[in-house]
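As a point of orientation, let us examine one representative protein, giving the amino acid sequence and backbone structure tokens.
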Amino acid sequence: MTPTPTPPTAAAPPPRYLGVDLAWRDSTPERPANETGLAVIDADGTVLDAGWARGVDEVEAWVLRWSTPGSVVAVDAPVLVPNATGMRASERLVARAYGRWHVSANASSASLPWLGGRTLGERLERAGGAYDDGVVPLPLDAVGHFECYPYTTLVGMAELGYDDKRPRYKRPDLSLPKEARREARAAACDELLRRLGGLAGAEVPLRLGSHPVSAALLDEPSPLVDRAYKHREDLLDALVCAWTAALRARTPERLQVLGVDTEPDDRGRRATLISPARPEQRLGPAPVARLGPDDDPRLLG
């Protein structure tokens, strides 16, 4: 009797690179959370989805919906916060590494009332994801999430050309006359978007024009009204996070781990920040690569 042919196995979907510009405060019955910007790209830099959500529940559902085996999730929010008070080592090191570019980090500790990043990280781990501290290698097919900071990406990647100072697209420049501040902020944002739009041909590409929501950032000028501007800024930061996730996966040698000497918790995890770095910004080692199918984790690290 002729054996029945074995049906071909469907190829696993390729990894994706997700960016989450997370609002730290979660929703409550009395008050919804602020908007979280969300973006996901593929290896070609094509934007597969871009938009906004409110609250950790919606963000978790979005991450799980778009993640595939081996995907990388970059979160702009404190994810692992072991310190009761004060500032984490990774945050102090941001100022040391990037202070020349006018970049520093806000302090976070367990005493803060809002730690949405920690909640999201716990949720993703319960759903089968893995925290990536850049020190302990993850399996090749794990969905790993790590903490990033968009400003360090903007000044750490030479392709963007911010060689002397970060772009001032967040808070208005108080040194300017009041009537000029919002226009200057919008101009800085538009210039940043112009530079990000030039990454379509980069080694690790980002194609803002490939999705209507992200393409609108290039086609429409930045608004002056604060609420509309923040809506736009959250999406911009999410796209930078998604690109940072792709850099983590594809060119880890261009990134550094800040906080590598932090005492690991009882699960062996360190509260680190993984950031692109120019040679003159480097204080920590490059993050480790994923484990291959034949790698023995006991021989690594």
Observations:
- DSSP finds seven helices and eight strands in the chain.
- The chain has one domain: 17-290.
- The beta strands are 17-21, 35-41, 47-54, 72-75, 130-131, 144-147, 255-258, 273-276.
- Residues 17-290 form one domain.
